[in-house]
From TrEMBL:
PROSITE patterns: ABC_TRANSPORTER_1, ABC_TRANSPORTER_2. Residues 7-239 form the ABC transporter domain. GO terms for molecular function: ATP binding; ATP hydrolysis activity. It comes from Vagococcus acidifermentans. It comes from the Bacteria. Pfam families: ABC_tran. This is ABC transporter ATP-binding protein. The keyword Transport applies. InterPro entries: AAA+_ATPase, ABC_transporter-like_ATP-bd, ABC_transporter-like_CS, ABC_transporter_ATP-bind, P-loop_NTPase.
Length: 257
């Protein structure tokens, strides 16, 4: 079980200077957000509203221009295996087997041998046990993405940052992966922050959905999805939440024009 922790973003703004025009882009403006372990927070919003920037700030890859980001009272500075990030495209080492890819961080720390069982268990849980000695080129796209997610999961991060992790998968694999991620989260009770373009996925998975608007990137709604798990994908309640969010996103468009 992941340790109890609280993530707080207080008055966070992030600006970038565009290299080509020197123009300043206000990617995020005055973001206040508190997330506790055990919460699954989905982040939705139009392209360019700063969703990935939030994840990169929490991962420590970026630091805020204004404001503070703390994990259980300690300022985040720099990356940590406690804050694991997974991306849309699988990032695997082609010359390592599936098992060695998943155990890569342990190899680096010199703890691979003692953790072999743990890696095998995780691979079995994700239906990849038979493929542990295969190489990435021998896997389907969905399998490679699962291996990539396991590589982050194995570290049992306090915060799991997911940037469109299922975006490139076919619909069927995507639904299976959604359920696998939910299983993992329910066992570990860690903190999940997931960016997605798919509003249905956001409400199906999240305990909360953060809805954002662009220019400058900001939070327009923090919506609790008050439904028990396992959820029914076709329930009226989920559809109602989805429609409410789609309306908010549409409202954002009118506001800009
Ligand atoms: N390193 C950077 N340099 C300059 N501008 C950047 C940089 N990173 C992000 N931006 C700008 O900040 C804004 C927010 O980008 P971000 O990638 O966070 O948006 P997003 O909501 O994740 O978009 P998408 O859904 O298209 O992935 C965009 O206008 C983007 O062009």
């Amino acid at each position: 079980m992941a340790k109890e922790s609280v993530l707080t973003l207080t008055g966070v703004s992030k600006s970038f200077a565009r290299a080509d025009t020197n123009e300043v882009v206000d990617a995020l403006s005055n973001i206040d957000l508190t997330v506790k372990s055990g919460e699954f927070v989905s982040i939705v919003g139009p392209s360019g509203c700063g969703k990935s920037t939030i994840l990169r700030l929490v991962s420590g890859l970026l630091s805020p221009t204004i404001g503070t980001i703390e994990l259980s009272g300690e300022k985040i500075s720099g990356t940590s295996p406690n804050r694991g990030m997974a991306f849309q495209k699988p990032t695997l080492f082609p010359w390592l087997t599936v098992k060695r890819n998943v155990g890569f961080s342990m190899k680096m720390r010199g703890t691979y041998q003692e953790n072999q069982h743990k890696i095998d268990d995780l691979l079995d849980m994700a239906g990849l046990g038979e493929f542990k000695d295969s190489y990435p080129a021998q896997l389907s796209g969905g399998m490679a993405q699962r291996v990539s997610l396991l590589r982050t999961m194995i570290n049992e991060p306090e915060i799991f940052l997911l940037d469109e992790p299922l975006g490139a998968l076919d619909a069927f694999t995507r639904m299976n992966m959604q359920d696998e991620l939910l299983n993992m989260w329910q066992k570990k009770k860690n903190m999940m922050l997931m960016v997605t373009h798919d509003v249905e996925e956001a409400v199906y998975m999240g305990t909360r959905v953060i809805v954002m608007a662009p220019r400058p990137g900001r939070i327009i709604k923090d919506m609790a999805i008050d439904l028990p798990y396992p959820r029914n994908r076709s329930s009226q309640e989920l559809t109602d939440y989805r429609n409410e969010i789609l309306e908010l996103l549409n409202y954002g468009k009118h506001e800009k024009n």
